[in-house]
């Protein structure tokens, strides 16, 4: 499976911003569609955003559209998630993974994902 390292999480106040990074490990991510997923305490994971490899099309869950922006920097072998206007309900562990963008679905189950990065939105 593909290996990713997530970083950039932390504690922020409501309305604040964070930028998450997803670095590919041991391979070039240029040819893969990459999605961001999150899992809040006691809940199942949900798709957040995705960026395609073919044309760079982006996809967002309704809950984050207009607040989050996904991008990729192939030179750095990294995908980013810029998160603005954060809300307490955004609190979760965020993961990146090889994905099918149209359905915001991961290719592999969570057992194959990395450790993720924790985002906590609280005052």
Describe the overall structure.
With 123 residues, the chain is mainly beta. The protein has no helices and eleven strands. It has strands at residues 3-7, 10-12, 18-25, 34-39, 46-51, 58-60, 68-73, 78-83, 92-100, 105-106, 117-121. Strands 2, 4, 5, 6, 9, 10 and 11 form a seven-stranded mixed β-sheet that branches. Strand 5 and strand 6 form a beta hairpin. The protein is globular. The mean pLDDT is 94.
| End-to-end C-alpha gap | 38 Å
Shape: globular
User: How would you classify the helix and strand content by structural class?
Assistant: mainly beta
Q: Based on DSSP secondary structure assignment, what is the total number of beta strands?
A: 11
Poorly predicted ranges? none
Q: How confident overall, as mean pLDDT?
A: 94
How much of the residues is beta strand, in percent? Answer: over 45%
Q: What is the H/E order?
A: EEEEEEEEEEE
Query: Can you count the helices?
Result: 0
Query: Roughly how much helix do the residues carry, as a percent range?
Result: under 10%
Largest pleated sheet: 7 strands, mixed
Spatial extent as radius of gyration: 13 Å
């Amino acid at each position: 499976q593909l290996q990713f390292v997530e970083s950039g999480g932390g504690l922020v106040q409501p309305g604040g911003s964070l930028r998450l990074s997803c670095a590919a490990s041991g391979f070039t991510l240029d040819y893969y569609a990459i999605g961001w997923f999150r899992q809040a305490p006691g809940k199942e994971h949900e798709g957040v955003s995705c960026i395609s490899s073919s044309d760079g099309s982006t996809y967002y869950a309704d809950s984050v559209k207009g607040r989050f922006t996904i991008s990729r920097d192939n030179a750095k072998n990294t995908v980013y998630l810029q998160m603005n206007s954060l809300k307490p309900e955004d609190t979760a562990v965020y993961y990146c993974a090889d994905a099918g963008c149209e359905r915001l679905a991961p290719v592999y189950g969570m057992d194959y994902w990395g450790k993720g990065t924790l985002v906590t939105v609280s005052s």
